[in-house]
Amino acid sequence: MPDFGAELKRRRMSVGMSLTGLAASVHFTKGYLSKVENGKVRVNRDLAKACDLALGAGGELLALVAESAFPARRSAGGIVGLPDNGRYFVGRETELEALSALLLGPDEARVGVVHGMAGAGKTALAVAAARQVAGAFPDGCLFFDLRGHTPGAVELSPGEALHRLLRLLDVSAEQLPADEDGLANLVRDQLRGRRMILVLDNVRSAEQIRAIADGETSSRILVTSRGRLPALDDAWHFPVGVLPLGDAVRLLRSVAGDHAPDDDTVATGIVRHCGQLPLAVRIVAARFVAGGWTAAQLRDRLADETTRLGALEDGERSVATAFAVSYEALPGDQQRLLGLLSLHPAAAAETGAVGALAGLGAGETDRLVDRLHDAHLVVRDERGYVELHDLMRTFAAKHALPQVPPDDREAAVRRLVEHLVALAVAADELAEPHRFRPATGLPAPAGVPFSDADGALAWLGAQWPALADIVDSAARHRLYDRCWQLAFVLRAFFFRERLLEPWIRTHERALEAARAAGDPGATGMILNNLGMAHVEAGRPGDAVRFHQQAQEQFALARDDRGAIDALSSLAWARLYRGEAEPAVADLTTVLAGYRRTGRTRNVVIALRGLALASAALDRFPEALAAAQEATGLAQLPVDLAMAVNCEAWVHFRAGHWDEAARSYRRAAEVADDAGSEYERARALTGRGNTAAARGDRPEARRWWAEAAAYRVKLDPAVLGEAEYRNRPAFAE
Predict the structure, then answer these.
(1) CA gap 303, 35 in Å, rounded
(2) Residues 200/168, Cβ–Cβ less than 8 Å
(3) Of 135, 144, 183, 518, whose CB count within 10 A is highest?
(4) What is the bridge-based pairing of β-strands 385-387 and 379-380?
C-alpha cells in the first residue's frame, strides 16, 4: 500500500495544486501539510478525508489511513460553554474590538494572553471577545478555569488541564492515556482540524498550558493571567489596565442601579479611591445595594488608607485577598521589595530610588523589578519608573511592609533619603551653579538622570512633590540633617517656579529638624529661606521677623557668611514693607561685604535691591546705575532676566517710556530663553503698563492679555509692575 504522504503529494501535483492552495482548501497550515507529505507527522482521518475531497480522490486517499490508535474525533457539537458576563460588562469598547480582531487573525496567531493586575476584568473581557466572534468558530467555545490565582483553590496541574479538556472534547475516560505526554499528544490530535475557541482562564504559568498551546490548529487559545507569561514565545499579548474614569463611574452606576450616589462628584471621588479597578468598583456598588452606608460615609472610608481595603470586601470578594494570592506566590526577595516600595512617597519611583530602597546593585534591582512587573504587581515603564497602583500600594504598606524587619525598613528609608538628597544637590548644581549649598558629606550619585541645566530643571519639575514628601519622611525618621539639607536645596527651584506652599511647608518641617539637631547655623539658613518665602507670599512683616531670628542664630553659630545673607534678606523685606531708606542703608553694607568676598551672584542680587529701593526714593540716577551694573554682572539667564526687568522698571518709574519699552522687550526675550514664565509675564505686564502710560490702550491690552496667559501670580505687594497694573488709572 502506498505511503499516504507520497500519494498525497503525487495527486496534488498531478492536478497542478500548490501546497498553499491545498492548505486553503483543507484548513490546515502549509507547513503542516509539508510535514505530512514528507512523512514527518502522523496523519489522522479528518485530514485524510479533507484531502481526499479537495483532490477528488474518490475515497482512495482516505483508504490509505488505517484506524487511528487514538480515539476518533467526535465534534464538540458547536458547544458554547462560555460563562455569562451578566448585565454589567461596561466600557472596554476599544479593547473589545481590538481583542476580537486578533481572534479573527491568521492561524499563525492562534494563542493570545490577556494579562493584567488582579481585579482588572481580564476574564470578563476575554469572554466578551470570545462571544463576539463565536460565529466564526463552528466547533464551539469552551471555558476552563485553571485556578492559578483562585484564593483557597489548588491550581490545575498540566496533566489535569489536559484531562479535563479531553473529556469535554468527548473522549471517554477509558481512552485517556495514563501519562502526561500521551495526554498532550491526544489533545493536539483532537484540536487539529477543529476550529474552536478555548478560553483558558486564571493561568499562573506557561507550563500549565504549554501542551495545549503548542499544537497546530485553526482553533484559538485565549489565556487570561495575572502574569505576562513571557515564556509563551509564539503568543501575542494583550494588556488590560484599569477602567477610564468615565467607564468606572458607569460601572458603579450600572451595578448599584437606583442605590448609586446621585452626586456625580461623590461618585467620581469614590471610583478614584477604588483606583478605577473593576473589582473594587463592583464591591463598592454591592455595598450600596446592601444598604447601611451613605455615599459620603463610604467615600470617607475609602479616602482613609487605614480603612480603604476593609471597605473593599463584601464577604465573598475582597481586593486584599485577590492581591494576597499574587503576593504570597512571590519568593522572599520579591516580597521584601514590594513592601519597601510602599515607603517611597510617590506612586512612581525611578529605578535608582528603587535600588536605594532595596540596597541592591542595578542588575539585581532590575531582576526583581522585572519579576514584579511580569506578575502585574508593579508597572515598569520605558522612562525608567516603577509604579504601584494606589490600591496595591495600600496593600503593600499594610501587608507586605510589616513582614520586613524594622531595622531593614529604617536602613531602606535612610538609603532612599540620602539617594534623593544627593540627586537634588546634583540637579541644583547644574541649575544654579553659583549658588551656595552647605556640604552634605554624600558622594556624587552615579548615573544621574540628567546631564545639563535644562535636564536638571525638568527632573526637579517632575520630582519635587516626592522630594517635598521626603523632607517630611526624613524628619519622621529623625534624619534631621538630611531633612533640612534637602529643604534648603529645594528652595532655589521653589523660588524659580514660585511654588510658595511647598516652599513654606518643607521649611517649617526643616526648621523643626534643625532645632532638634541643635544646629544654629542650619536653623539660621532655614529661617532665612522662610523669610524669603513670606516676602514672595506678600507678607513682609512676617519675613522681617524670620530674618531677624536668622541673624540671632547666625550670631550663635559665629557664621559671618550667614549673617550677611540674613541682613541682605532683611533689607529686601524692609523694602517691600515700604521702608526704602533703611533698605538702602542695609543693602549698601551688604554690597560691600559681597564685593569683598567675591560673591558675584550675591552682588547682583544686592544691586537689584539697591536699584528698586533707590527708585522708590525717586533717586533715579543711582537706581539706574545699580540696575545696569547688575545686568552687566549677571551670570545666569534667569538672573539676567531679573536684572533687565529691574532696569526697565527704573526707566518706567523715571518716565522714560522709550527706554522702558526697549528694556521690557529685551527682558521678555531673555526670560523666554531662561525658561522663566514669571519674569516673562512680569516683562509683558511692564510693556502693557508702558503702553498705557503713553495712552495706547489697545497696545496695553494686548500685552496684558499675553501676560495673563501665563499661569503665574504677579503679587502687587512685592512686584511694582503688578501694583501699577492694578491701579485704578490703569484698570479696564
Answers:
(1) 62
(2) no
(3) 183
(4) antiparallel
